[in-house]
Amino acid sequence: MQSQDEAPPAGPGETVAEGPAVRAAGDILAGLLFAGLGLAALLIGRAYPVGSSLDMGPGYLPRVVAGALVLTGLVVMLRGMRLRAFRWPALPLRAMGWIAAAMLLFAGLVERTGLFVACLASILVAALGDPQARWREVPVVAVIFAGFCALLFGYVLRLPVRVWPL
Amino acid sequence: MNLWYCFLGALVGTLIGVLPGLGPIATMAMLLPLTYYLEPTGALIMLAGIYYGAQYGGSTTAILMRLPGESSSVVTCLDGYEMARQGRAGTALATAALSSFLAGTITTLLIAFFSPALTAVAQRFGPAEYFCLMILGLTAAIVFAQGSLLKSFGMILVGLLFGLVGADVNTGLDRFTFSIAELRDGIGIAALSMGVFGIAEIVLNLARPEQSGERAQSVSSLRLSAADFRAAWPAALRGTGIGALLGILPGGSAMMASFASYSAEKKLSSSPERFGHGAIEGVAGPEAANNAGAQASFIPMLALGIPSNSVMAMMAGAMLIHGIAPSPNLASVQPGLFWGLIVSMWLGNVMLLIINLPLIGLWVRLLQVPYRLMFPAILLFCCIGIYSVNYSVFEVALLALFGVAGIVFALLNCPLAPLVLAFILGPAMEENLRRAMLISNGDLGIFTSPVCIAMLAAAVMILSMIIFPSFRSVRAVAADG
Questions:
Q1: Are B187 and B162 in contact (CB under 8 A)?
Q2: pTM for this entry
Q3: Closest to B161 (Cβ–Cβ): which among A69, A102, A103?
């Protein structure tokens, strides 16, 4: 996992203070990601009519953008490989997985069981992703927040959304 | 009524923005859906208020806890936190508030004068000129983004690609929709920006080890002595000038402005050694600059219809959701909205003074709420907010997807602002390019009109700035922050 000398990951929009191994890994993986996205777009969009520069079809720009993305990806990757160092970035799998699961659970439940239950369930699942979670506190927090959301969005703001399961 | 939205926006923006780790972009992304129920003017005024509030909230944490809420308050930490440690927290906070107010007032006047003039020019633009203008905007976004140029360029392409998703305007052919009906209208700006900025931020905060030590400093009297005042106001004025100039540049940001102002103050000072040890100019200048920069960045959007940074991209997204296309015609088609927004800028600054100075004790107490209690609320608001845009479960899933994408990009040091900007500009660029080529019968000569040449030349000039060592060093410092 993360070593001591490494700076903590910065928030989105900022960049992480980088050592060569981190920088190289970032370049190589980002390059692969760019190239992969570009290739996928080229493949999926291969049937879109391209047209001509005079009369551009729906496939014209997708092809130009995706092609440029593949090229950029390759250059970024090569630049990273020149640094001859590599360290996998520490992906916050636990937090990422459980938070994403919490959101998907909310999506799955909100129309079936209503807002209150969906909120309750997603807070409980989200807490699994929090290393600082205190398990005696979590159910209490979940009920309070879910109740607050049900009140605020269901009754005060009157969203046309089902609030209770029955 | 709009006055009330402005106040509400500034209050809620401060409330969320003051929470450590939540900058203006994340705050705006989270609160974007709240504004869907309002009239367009009210919605934009409230969003602008949220923006100023969150921006200002970042300074409070910078001064009291040495936690910059966002990159533009990194500089405020240097001297602001030192002042707080010397027991002058109140003075630092008051300086920040008053300089921001001064900068906001002056910049509002600038916007009121400049936007209509620029608009008049922009109204004569054809599709080719528009396309070149957007190229200029994206070039600036690459150069002024933090980190690697090549990766910024890649992120622009990724943003353009995301922008292509949906039915083609001219032929109606579905592109990259994977036969999902919800994607025919394209990817929602709210899901994309809230995912890459908001959700990614929640997860990265959770995964980060608990912030060590750094307790909030207590707040002393908010009074400025006469000596403080004499030192602060010229710095604030200079900061305003620097900020307004950098803010008008497409792609220029509040962050660049605050860094530039800090180094200018340090160079001009007769006692530069005080900087970093609680120099009041080091708070007044950058705080004025980042507020002026933030506000001046409205000029390209209001006058030209081109969002110049990710915050403006979000404003443009909000306009689109309300059925208003950001364009140079805004002032003539929607004068109420245009002038309402400008008046609200100044009012927003007044409200910030009212909200921040007397309520500072409340904000300090809010800083003590542990993150484990805050994040579920933030997460729920994001989910409910996105769901209530179209009452579509699919959008919530999309939010999760972009959250994961945002985390991956952030960890690979790929800047997210160019992505969001290109995503917003992409569809308009395609339309204008295709139209321009149709008009000219496929002749590239249409891009040689004087306006086009001027804009492309400006793009090349901005790109070549990267050669200058002094610019590179500012950029590097900003990236380290």
A1: yes
A2: 0.81
A3: A69
